[in-house]
Amino acid sequence: MGGLRVVGASFVVPGPSGVAVRDRLKGLTVEDERVLRLVGDHLGSLASRDLKARCAAGLEHGNEAWASRKRALTGESSSRWAGSLTKATHDQWALARRGQAAHIQQLEAGVNTIRHRLSLPLGEKGSKRGPGGYRSRREWHAKTRRLGVLEDRLERAGADWAAGRVRVVRGGKRLFNNRYHLEQAQLTEERWRARWEASRRFLRADGESGKRYGNETIRVSPDGEVSIRLPAPLAHLANAPHGRYVLAARVSFAHRGETWRDRVGANRAVAYRIHEDVQRQRWYLTASWTIPPVQTVLLAAVRTGGLIGVDTNADHLAAWRLDVHGNPVGAPRRFDYTLSGTADHRDAQVRHALTRLLHWAARHRLAIAVEDLDFTAETSREKHGRRKHFRKLISGMPVARLRARLVSMAAELGIPLVAVDPAYTSRWGAQHWQKPLTTSKRTTTRHDAAAVAIGRRALGHPVRRRTAPPRTHQSDGYGHRTVQAGPETPGREEARPRIPGPRTRSVPPGRGANAGNQNAQHRPGRSAEQGFWQQDSLPLGL
Fold it and tell me: Contact, 171 vs 199, CB < 8 A?
């Protein structure tokens, strides 16, 4: 065990801190869409200018600079619009900063791996703790050039990080690059232009507690009426008092609608975002608000009654129910999903698989144990070399999407989640559980065995089925041999309870009083009578 890393402790995953619901704006008129585009384009231009100023400030930015940016935007919009713009800009800069740090960490890992492998002789085999040398002189030479490229990238990224310089594209870098590859993206210039303009619009307003319906900028009444406070240059487009524009569409959130109506009725803060889906030619309104943190259930309480271990894979979830002692109960379950097609189709597949898993857990009133997976630093070709299939496999696993969806959906149903360390679950599960759980009528896969290992780790039991037997090979010598039943478990050393009735399979219970009487079966070595008997004396005349 000296070469194995220390396995982290399991913990109960806290619930989500916010809620977001979306509804379609149906029945918009041509004038409504024109006003929304004008407002979004105007505020989008202000957001681009503010983002440029924030990136130029770098690490020297402070509260005074933030207030100065907000004052510059207030005259061309409003005080509340300016507050939403500056906050969104700051969040975008912070997100780019975190992405830059992750990029530097990945470059450092690649550089260190190449340097280590270049220092080893050609053809030297690797170990479980690190890769070996390169297999040929040609590959060694190619990796030296690759090392130079990564070191140059690392130097430039490090200089940007030290200077607080980030590079952000409003609308997305991928969509921006599609402009020069329209045939590969299967887009025309008009369609690309419509997507680009829609992605750069800004129609987002933060909520304010105590204000009418929780938001003064984008106001939605409990009956679904949507009105927007127009910026100062577009105030002439208002169709309602106080420079507001009322849309002809009405919204009624099907999901969490009652919760949303309670919030707006009590004038509690609700943030709104309006965006256009160019492909579907539809407009949507998204409402979001924060929720108080849910009291986390103690891990000891979650383990009471057992739980469900879940192994995450690229195309399915493997689950198995375990009792409180860590023994598998029933048959394993498999929840498939297909990560192909559009992003909405992939998201729907993940939601459907998680819904079936959560409904199964809710029926049995059990918690769910999952691995705390993170593949952000595990997909580089420097670590896995030519194992392209494995790199593609772990890159395609929807870890972040599954984690976010599972946390929010489980909190809605009140199902606790236990996160465990993913170290060696697949390997030890296959080693200790795959063969014993395989029968003539059931084939246990490696993923099913991993689900058992995950569940046992969440319950606090070791993954292996039994510990090493004592020296005397007797349970009375040094204690009980199994780890499933502790010394405090009542009845662990007692005989099994006697079941009334016969012991044969041919006679049903309650019938055949002599079924269990071995002496009444006229078997060899047993007497045919139960009464007193006496052997006759031997004949003396013989």
Answer: yes
Three-class secondary structure of residue 130 per DSSP: strand
- Give the pair of three-digit tokens for residue 199: 């992605």
pTM: 0.71
* Contact (CB, 8 A) for 281 and 299: no
Long-range contacts of 293-297 (CB under 8 A, 24+ apart): 293/14, 293/15, 293/17, 294/14, 294/15, 294/411, 296/12, 296/14, 296/15, 297/12, 297/416
Q: What residue spans of 226-375 are helical by DSSP H?
A: 257-265, 299-303, 343-364
CA distances to 19, 22, 224, 257, 443 from 254, in Å: 14, 9, 12, 5, 43
- Cα(449)–Cα(433) distance, rounded to whole angstroms? 5
Q: What are phi and psi of 118, to 5 degrees?
A: -70, -25
Phi, psi of 330 (to 5 degrees): 75, -155
Contact present, 297 and 454 (Cβ < 8 Å) = no
C-alpha to C-alpha distances, 360 to 313, 357, 406, 409, 533, nearest whole angstrom: 19, 5, 14, 13, 65
Instruction: Transcribe 35-72 into DSSP letters.
Output: HHHHHHHHHHHHHHHHHHHHHHHGGG--HHHHHHHHHH
**Cα dist. 121→94, 113, 177, 304 in Å?**
43, 15, 42, 54
> Are the C-beta atoms of 200 and 44 separated by less than 8 Å?
yes
Residue with tokens 């606090």: 460
- The secondary element (H helix, E strand) that includes residue 288 is strand 282-290
pLDDT in tens, 446-494: 999 999 999 999 999 988 876 555 666 655 555 555 555 566 666 655 6
Q: In what order do the strands lie in the sheet with 367-371?
A: 11-12, 417-420, 367-371, 307-312, 316-322, 328-336
